[in-house]
User: What shape does this take?
Amino acid sequence: MTDALQKLIEAAKTVEPSSDASETQRRSFAYGNTKFENSKITREMVAEQADILKKNKGKN
Assistant: This one.
């Protein structure tokens, strides 16, 4: 492994994703896993449910 690549890897370990990036990744993960089980699932359906969960999160 080159020194430049090692430096990039070490720098990447300290990066914290933004809340938007984390939310995008979470939704993509949910879509991928549900689509695998049910081909009728759409990204819009996942987004709609994620928005509902996000809205209701503070109500518990």
Summary: The CA atoms of residues 16 and 57 lie 23 Å apart. The chain is about 70% helix and 0% strand.
